[in-house]
Write a structure and sequence with these properties.
Blueprint lengths: L1 E6 L5 E6 L6 E5 L7 H11 L8 E9 L13 E9 L4
Antiparallel strand pairs: 1-2, 3-5, 4-5
Length: 90
């Protein structure tokens, strides 16, 4: 989804961001769904059939997704993601 704008705030618009999956990276929102290891493994195999533990990393990441142009820190402007990355090179 990338960058966007929603109504509200000063001037009537607030900048937002939502990460897009790429060929080698997958973002799963972590704070609204109960995730099991089986669920993550299924998603990995769906996206990268035959992928193995040797070339996959699973990490948590807090990404600034709302109110991008405001100066003050607000924890509610960040979204927790599980980021799954597949490494194909050396």
């Amino acid at each position: 989804m990338g960058y966007g704008i929603r109504s509200g705030g000063i001037g009537g618009s607030i900048r937002t961001f939502w990460p897009d999956d790429t060929d080698d990276k997958m973002y799963i929102q972590a704070d609204t769904v109960t995730l099991t290891l089986a669920h993550l493994l299924d998603k990995i195999q769906d996206k990268w059939p035959g992928a193995s533990a040797e070339n996959i990393t699973i990490t948590p990441e807090k990404i600034h997704t709302d109110c991008l142009s405001y100066d003050l820190y607000d924890a509610g402007d960040y979204t927790d993601f599980i980021v799954i990355t597949r490494y194909t090179g050396a």
